[in-house]
Amino acid sequence: MRFGITRYALAAMALALVVLVSGGVKTMASPVGKPASASTAAPAGTPSSDPRQAQIKAIDEKIKALREQFQSQAGPMEAQVKTLREKFEADLSALQAQRKELVEEGESAGLKALLDEETAQLAALADKEKDEIAKVHERYADQRKTLQQDFQRRRRELENDKK
Question: Is residue 14 within 8 Å of 70, Cβ to Cβ?
Fold first, then answer.
């Protein structure tokens, strides 16, 4: 039996494997070369220490390497699926067009007119829906931008208060 796996599940498993191989979560959370304990943790109000920055950079590099490895392995498979899909879509579309033509030949003029009217109205409704969805996306993008600007301003105020 084959189980399908999504690219996100694969990435999550790979990340879990990296954490496990590199010594687990406790090792990842502690400064490099030192055990995690309350006495070695930096006070809450002080800036990050160099070992912590080095550890963050190392984790970023591991994440980047895993993503590159995933892309290098998934890329050829995605290309094969795309090629296969294009091949079958071409065959299917020709058969579907032939079927549609045969069905339409057997329909009455009144039914053809009714189907054409339905198609036109559904197309108009789909266009209207796309326009409204675009407006909603734009509205949320504006709200997101406003929120980001507000928080950026607040961060700058906090940084200025520290000085």
Answer: yes
**pLDDT tens-digit series, residues 89-107:** 989 999 999 998 898 888 8
Give the domain range for residue 139.
109-163
Q: Tell whether 22 and 97 lie within a shared domain.
A: yes
Domain tally, the chain:
2
Query: Mean pLDDT across the stretch 47-65?
Result: 87
- Which runs of consecutive H residues, i.e. helices, occur in 1-108? 7-21, 24-29, 50-105
Q: How far is CA 154 from CA 44, 46, 48, 140, 149, in A?
A: 20, 19, 21, 21, 9
Asked if residue 41 belongs to a domain, the reply is no
Q: Give 33-48 pLDDT, tens digit per residue.
A: 444 444 444 444 445 5
Closest CA to 59 of 9, 34, 25, 8: 25
Same domain, 157 and 120: yes
* Sign of the torsion formed by the C-alpha atoms of 22, 23, 24 and 25: negative
